[in-house]
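Ligand: uridine-diphosphate-N-acetylglucosamine. Inputs:
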Amino acid sequence: MDVYKINGGNRLRGTVKVSGAKNSAVALIPASILANSSVTIGGIPEISDAWTLKALLEELGGEVTFNDGQMVIDPTQMQAIPLPNGNVKKLRASYYLMGAMLGRFKKAVIGLPGGCFLGPRPIDQHIKGFEALGAKVTNEHGAIYLRAEELIGAKIYLDVASVGATINIMLAAVRAKGRTIIENAAKEPEIIDVATLLTNMGANIKGAGTSVIRIDGVDELQGTKHTIIPDRIEAATFMIMAAAIGDGVTVDNVIPFHLEAVTAKLREMGVKIEEGEESMYIHRSDILQSVDVKTLVYPGFPTDVQQPLSVLMTQAVGASKVTDTIYSARFKHIDELRRMNATARVEGNSAIIQGPSKLHGSTVTATDLRAGAALVLAGLIAEGQTEIQDIHHIERGYSSLIEKLCAIGADIRRESITISAIERAK
Ligand SMILES: CC(=O)N[C@H]1[C@@H](OP(=O)(O)OP(=O)(O)OC[C@H]2O[C@@H](n3ccc(=O)[nH]c3=O)[C@H](O)[C@@H]2O)O[C@H](CO)[C@@H](O)[C@@H]1O
Ligand SMILES: C=C(OP(=O)(O)O)C(=O)O
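Predicted complex:
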């Protein structure tokens, strides 16, 4: 089993460069299925989700290369091969194969997705959208079967502003006949990134990034080149690490506008942040103040950042409260933080964290991607050695994390260990 080992206490200093956005990459890669020639995407992060999607496109008959952050996808020989099991279960974003395959082949069989378990993560709004476009959708033995004679544009009101449903409906609707209007669409920057790629492929999309998106379907989409936006969640993670244990860290390759909610909350805690055009320079104040935060859809505070932020709260003076309005059960990291001497408890969809606490190095488990990032931060702060298990969750979403952290002064390494069944059961 591979683990991260961290010797805590080293101060972070220097520049860390943010990679391309995971949540864009995992939608842009399936979007290439819709093209009639090669699609080249630059800035793809070195994460396991990207490699898994590459393997899935190859299972469909695509030719895919992935070198130095550039993925070239030739979708011309792809077929509507059923994917009820296997790789689709390794990540959440395999659900985008549904929209893209429906758009191109008018049929698909895709197993229900995996990804982080954060409480219930239904896909009813995706299915409602596909049905409104004219698809027959059934769930058979854990796989979603989609089939349409033809796709016809429709007006679709999303009951929740879902990132996945907005993108998935867009992927199918670009090849529907006539106009589709998505109302109460999600507004995350990754949606604009996907709309930009599709537009460069020849799609007709207006309003991406607002709550009403209009799509006029086209008969054909061609190959193109695209460079992905920076990962605002990775950027926020480094900003929080810099605030917790930095002596001046520049987080480079960011779009500061995408980070406004995070920047504002960190400033409220007393963190000093200087915004550049494409970078953030972070130096903490001597005393961190406790704050309350509520996660919301974009442009609100991102749910994907609340777990790392809760570790910073263990270092703030007084009681902080994190309420997650998107995922009510996204608090598994709190139990692990308690092992490290944090004073924290979960009440409903909130965590209450009392600081400041002296964190102690311990053996902990990454229960999901951002819980893992939170534990890396806790390990960097803690006295002594921390061992993080189940790091495959972290590696779904953070590109070259060890290398990036070592370059700014952290003492963290990846190690293979053998672990007995008895120890594993503890
Ligand atoms: C691959 C990807 O981009 N993942 C991101 C995406 O996940 P994902 O696209 O799965 O998240 P959604 O925006 O769809 O989910 C938001 C909320 O809507 C609910 N919901 C969603 C769809 C649906 O059909 N029915 C329904 O009830 C969910 O349970 C959740 O409470 O957005 C989340 C919210 O910003 C982020 O945490 C994830 O990192
Ligand atoms: C929840 C996340 O990812 P996914 O939707 O891929 O599980 C995340 O990126 O924090």
